[in-house]
Design brief:
The chain has one domain: 3-Layer(aba) Sandwich (Collagenase (Catalytic Domain)), CATH 3.40.390.10. By secondary structure, the chain is an alpha/beta fold. The strands form two sheets. Strands 2-1-5-8-7 form a five-stranded mixed β-sheet, with helices on both faces. Strands 3-4-6 form a three-stranded mixed β-sheet. The radius of gyration is 15 Å and the shape is globular. Helices cover 36% and strands 18% of the residues. Its cofactor is Zn(2+). GO terms for molecular function: metallopeptidase activity; zinc ion binding. It holds the Pfam family Peptidase_M54. Keywords: Hydrolase, Metal-binding, Metalloprotease, Protease, Zinc.
Length: 185
């Protein structure tokens, strides 16, 4: 697997500038990667399935890659529900060959409560973004529910995770991933 140093985040819907800025700063500080904001894009119409009323994640990722062919890694933030070949509802999806991923803002906006709902959304986004980067760095899903590499099937699982990798995943990163020299967690 090739290494990467630069991540481009592409908003595909409504997300506040302060949340985007916080996301880029958090991901950059935790991974030591360069994180840039790409121009906003609308979700691709051909990716929309009118029966499911959701967007097909694979098509979104291909669309992102066509718009940013030179990017090391590209991650889209789509303000809609998405599905994959296997699951009818996904929070995020990654494609290794494309070195790209997509995150559903729609699902991450569920159960926003408390005094600082935007801060909670930004934290969820950071966790899912770093989860995607973990996959692209060679990590699989982890059995530890506090680890960022634990699979989230809902936002409550995302909220329970710490903003970092467990010791086992940190060792795996050091032993053979492009992010091996970076300390996360």
């Amino acid at each position: 697997m090739r290494s990467f140093k630069r991540v481009i985040i592409v908003p595909m819907g409504s997300l506040g500038a302060s949340c985007l800025q916080r996301l880029m700063e958090t991901v950059s500080s935790l991974t030591s990667l360069s994180v840039d904001l790409g121009p906003s894009l609308p979700p691709p119409i051909p990716a929309f399935n009118p029966v499911k009323r959701k967007f097909y994640s694979h098509f979104i990722i291909e669309y992102l890659r066509r718009h940013h062919p030179q990017a090391d890694v590209i991650i889209g933030l789509v303000d809609a529900d998405i599905y994959s070949e296997i699951l009818d509802n996904v929070i995020s999806e990654v494609q290794h060959l494309q070195q790209a991923g997509v995150i559903s803002l729609s699902l991450l906006k569920e159960f926003l409560f408390g005094e600082r709902p935007e801060a909670l959304l930004c934290e969820r986004l950071a966790k899912e973004t770093i989860h995607i980067l973990g996959h692209l760095s060679g990590l699989g899903h982890c059995h530890n529910p506090r680890c960022l590499m634990y699979p989230s099937h809902g936002v409550l699982e995302t909220d329970f995770k710490q903003l970092g990798f467990c010791p086992e995943c940190q060792i795996r990163l050091r032993l053979g991933s492009p992010m091996a020299s970076r300390r996360i967690g």
